Amino acid sequence: MSAVASSSVTTLSSTDTSSLLCAPGITDGSEKGFFDDVEKYVASLQEKYREKTFIRKETYDKILKSLLLEKGTSSESIPTKLVFWARKNFIIEKIAGTDIVCCSKNKKPLCIYESFFNVMKECHLNVSHGGRTKTLNEINSHYSWVPRAVVEIFLRHCLPCQLRKPLKQSVVSKPIISLGVMTRLQIDLIDMRTRPDVVSAGVVYCWILHCIDHFSKFTWAYPLENKSAKEVVVKLRQLFFTFGPPRLLHSDNGSEFAANVILELKTVFPNLCFIRGRPHHPQSQGCIERANGVLSLSLGKWLQTNNTTHWPEGLSPVVYGINTRTSDTTRATPYEIMFGQHSRGDSEFWKIVKDQDIVDEEHLRQLII
């Protein structure tokens, strides 16, 4: 069983944060500071590349007008050279009846310069403070024309990422091979007894049951009051009846996963095989051990971002962010591998529905038509 140090999810006090902000290389995380650094980056480019590195609101409006011009016509307010460039690189897509300028190559809406900070912040939170590659993949799945260098600048302005540097972990010498989804499920407990969450007088959460599908890297996490066999079995039965039982249930040598757990699960799932890792050898549980660190780090950032100490409330959004960001191992999101499709929580259509404050079914039908 892995007992991840509670300090990995401890929020920083205001005094600690203030002292760390004085350290060299630590930024204040403000939107103004972000755009100041972006402008410095633009100034460092050759003059011929500066204008079209980003699409500003003024340029976006000109591109839209250029694309709406009939072929063979011109406009006195828009240079012919700009019209030619716009028609070569962009197209218009109608989303819920609104004309949106999209890149002609990937059909993704343009992200204008003025929206960089908010878009990157939203995508960065969606992947639970994943690094540059995961954040960039999330942005590119929804928008176009966002330079990698600007994403790197944004990450330097993300306070939770600056104040929490993960330690390198050892590499597993003999990787475990899985043949398909739910072939091997690895489970472990994360010890949270040093910072229990008191829900009520009779409910105090002190542990996290962490499960990960070895093939897809899809993750589940459940708060537990204690690590008794009874509590563990309740959560595992809930998982198995939703996603189906795994072929192999892989855990360490903790007594909480022995005896009663095996007997109860075997009664309902007779084909389930139970495998224990080597005693005092966490490398045999490498996948779940690394995932414990990722979950604890992301949960700590969520607590700091939301200014709360109730970590059970953060398990669902953090796990969703981990499951919908690209895995370095599979080069796809665990959600895609598990369900065969992208998550649908951030579509452009529903953003427009939200912006127009549509709450009536009849108005929604008119918007679709």
From TrEMBL:
Entries under Gene3D superfamilies matching the protein: 1.10.340.70, Ribonuclease H-like superfamily/Ribonuclease H (3.30.420.10)
Residue ranges of domain Integrase catalytic in the record = 171-342
Molecular-function annotations in GO: nucleic acid binding
User: What's any GO biological process attached to this entry?
Assistant: DNA integration
Q: Which SUPFAM superfamilies match?
A: Ribonuclease H-like (SSF53098)
Q: What is this protein called?
A: Integrase catalytic domain-containing protein
Native species? Didymodactylos carnosus
